[in-house]
Design brief:
Radius of gyration: 22 Å
Strand content: under 5%
Number of strands: 0
Order of helices and strands: HHHHHHHHHHHHHHHHHHHH
Structural class: mainly alpha
Helix content: over 70%
Length: 375
């Protein structure tokens, strides 16, 4: 009988119930809410499903992220900046840079939206974070998950990587909810109805030269951006060169989805109750939301300025797409514009600032690395 009791006791101690704490239960509920939003509401399921499932796993079985655990090896690829760089290659292979080439002024809108990053950096410092932690947190303002992970790893802020990544990806997923109220608040109905002239055709030669020239210029000025900008432009060169269809297909499909699975589950698995339910996490989530809102507002306001300077030829809504969430932010610009006038098509115009925002966020990350002497 004693053997049976000891055996049953040992088995009971090996179940998840033996170490389940109130904090773990809270995180499990959060994971289930994220799964609901992803599956039932369709909020960026490619991001939220793996992230929320990783969150679910680690709060039931913490050892899955311990050294030697399955997701620990995935997370090392985050720390080493491998997965974020590969994500950028996939984004480049999937994205048409033509709207940005056709309208170079889009670079200004993308730059304006980065104001959220630098304002978040200052706010984070005021809230008690050290300079490197503040820089890593600030990238959330660009709504760019891979760059947030990349910079946090480079600046040695792996302890904050989980909250930073979850906040960044959550806000990327919630772009359709967060951005429209800000955009409508800062624009008039007449401005939202502005129809923009069709973009000029972009030649194949221009599309081939663009990633090469951008890589040379940006990486010579800020060599620290090479892993992100370089991979982004390499992926786009695959797409536009027309001679490596297999590489384009692999980078934009199979590789991209494999990397999303690895990155999403490992990021979600950093959200154990002990690491996530802290005051620092709450401050990061708040800072991220404020930064994202400021970035959206800055892009929209700069769009209004361009509207005035061009005599009403620019719809200010495309400025909000200057954040790095591709192509979600551009789709939101299109949606809000169509609500004002169903015949208004802003998607391609908004893709210019959206692509510029990706480059701008990578440049912001490279700038912080240069400031802190990190290579």
């Amino acid at each position: 009988m004693e053997y049976v009791i000891n055996t049953m006791t040992n088995l009971a101690m090996q179940t998840g119930f033996a170490f389940l704490k109130p904090g773990n239960a809270i995180m499990i509920v959060v994971a289930l809410v994220f799964l609901y939003l992803a599956i039932a509401k369709g909020y960026e399921p490619l991001l939220l499903v793996p992230i929320s499932f990783g969150m679910l796993l680690v709060n039931m079985y913490p050892d899955i992220m311990a050294e030697g655990g399955l997701l620990h090896f995935f997370f090392l690829l985050d720390e080493w900046s491998i997965l974020p760089s590969l994500i950028f290659m996939g984004v480049g292979a999937m994205t048409d840079f033509g709207p940005l080439i056709a309208n170079p002024a889009s670079f200004l809108l993308g730059a304006a939206a980065q104001f959220g990053i630098y304002s978040a950096y200052i706010l984070a410092m005021l809230m008690g974070f050290n300079d490197k932690a503040a820089a890593a947190i600030s990238i959330i303002g660009g709504a760019d998950g891979p760059t947030s992970i990349f910079l946090a790893g480079k600046l040695g802020q792996t302890g904050l990587m989980g909250p930073i990544a979850v906040a960044a990806y959550s806000y990327m997923s919630l772009v359709p909810i967060i951005q429209p109220p800000i955009m409508k608040l800062l624009t008039t109905e007449e401005e939202r109805k502005i129809k923009m002239a069709q973009l000029r055709p972009v030649s194949k030669l221009e599309k081939i030269l663009f990633p090469i020239i951008v890589t040379i210029v940006v990486c010579l000025i800020l060599p620290t951006t090479a892993p992100l900008v370089g991979m982004l432009m390499l992926g786009n060169l695959f797409r536009e060169s027309g001679v490596v269809g297999q590489l384009t297909e692999t980078a934009s499909n199979a590789m991209m989805y494999i990397v999303v699975i690895l990155l999403g589950t490992s990021v979600g698995a950093t959200t154990s109750a002990e690491a996530f339910l802290t005051w620092d996490t709450i401050k990061i989530v708040i800072l991220g939301l404020v930064a994202f809102a400021i970035g959206t507002a800055a892009g929209t306001l700069f769009g209004k300025l361009m509207c005035k300077l061009t005599g009403g030829k620019v719809n200010p809504l495309i400025g909000s797409a200057g954040v790095s969430a591709v192509p979600m932010a551009a789709r939101v610009s299109q949606k809000v514009g169509a609500e004002a006038d169903p015949t208004n098509f802003l998607l391609m115009h908004a893709m210019g600032p959206n692509v510029a925002g990706v480059i701008g966020t990578a440049v912001a990350a490279g700038t912080f690395m240069a400031i802190f002497g990190v290579v």
